[in-house]
């Protein structure tokens, strides 16, 4: 790997894995998600994620979704950050009433966020969202 693209783990890097099980009267669901936050270049933070979900119900139908995502955060100055986020989701439904149904969606978000500044009188935070859903 080229030296300028090599990431060395830092104390700020986080890895989170979450598993959920949901049982209702007529369905059972399982969800697994992974999130990572890594400081990659000084003031640039990269946050990839992946979510997997599978559900089955008492009619024999199954639904599955997978959704990868990526957020890029640039701390412009200590009090403000620019964030850009893209998420893609693909879902599939199959069962006696529906065979091979599939759906794809994409979400892009850009945000300018004023970060909390500690000091007398507390902290403040403001954000401006510019969302797009193609």
Share of β-strand residues: over 45%
Structural class: mainly beta
Q: Low-confidence parts, pLDDT < 50 over ≥5 residues? A: 1-5, 119-134
Number of strands: 7
Overall form:
elongated
Discrete helix count: 0
> What about the largest sheet?
7 strands, antiparallel
Helix-strand pattern, N to C? EEEEEEE
The pLDDT mean sits at 78
Strand order in space, largest sheet: 1-2-3-4-5-6-7
Question: Would you write up a description of this structure?
Answer:
With 134 residues, the chain is mainly β. It is 0% helix and 68% strand. It is built from no helices and 7 strands. It has strands spanning 14-23, 27-41, 44-57, 62-77, 80-94, 101-114, 126-132. Strands 1-2-3-4-5-6-7 form a 7-stranded antiparallel beta sheet, with no helix packed on it. Strand 4 and strand 5 form a beta hairpin.
Strand-helix topology:
Blueprint: E1 14-23, E2 27-41, E3 44-57, E4 62-77, E5 80-94, E6 101-114, E7 126-132
Antiparallel strand pairs: 1-2, 2-3, 3-4, 4-5, 5-6, 6-7
Concise structural overview:
By secondary structure, this protein is mostly beta strands. The chain has strands at 14-23, 27-41, 44-57, 62-77, 80-94, 101-114, 126-132. The two termini are 34 Å apart.
List the main descriptive attributes of the protein structure presented here.
134 residues, single chain, mainly beta, 7-stranded antiparallel sheet
């Amino acid at each position: 790997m080229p030296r300028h693209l090599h990431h060395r783990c830092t104390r700020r890097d986080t890895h989170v894995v979450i598993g959920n099980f949901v049982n209702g009267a007529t369905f059972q669901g399982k969800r697994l998600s992974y999130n990572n936050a890594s400081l990659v270049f000084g003031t640039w933070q990269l946050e990839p994620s992946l979510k997997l979900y599978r559900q089955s119900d008492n009619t024999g139908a199954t639904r599955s979704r997978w959704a990868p995502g990526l957020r890029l955060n640039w701390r412009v100055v200590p009090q403000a950050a620019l964030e850009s986020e893209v998420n893609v989701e693909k879902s599939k439904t199959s069962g006696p009433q529906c065979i091979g149904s599939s759906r794809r969606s994409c979400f892009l978000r850009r945000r300018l966020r004023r970060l909390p500044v500690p000091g007398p009188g507390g902290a403040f935070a403001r954000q401006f969202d510019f969302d797009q859903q193609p």
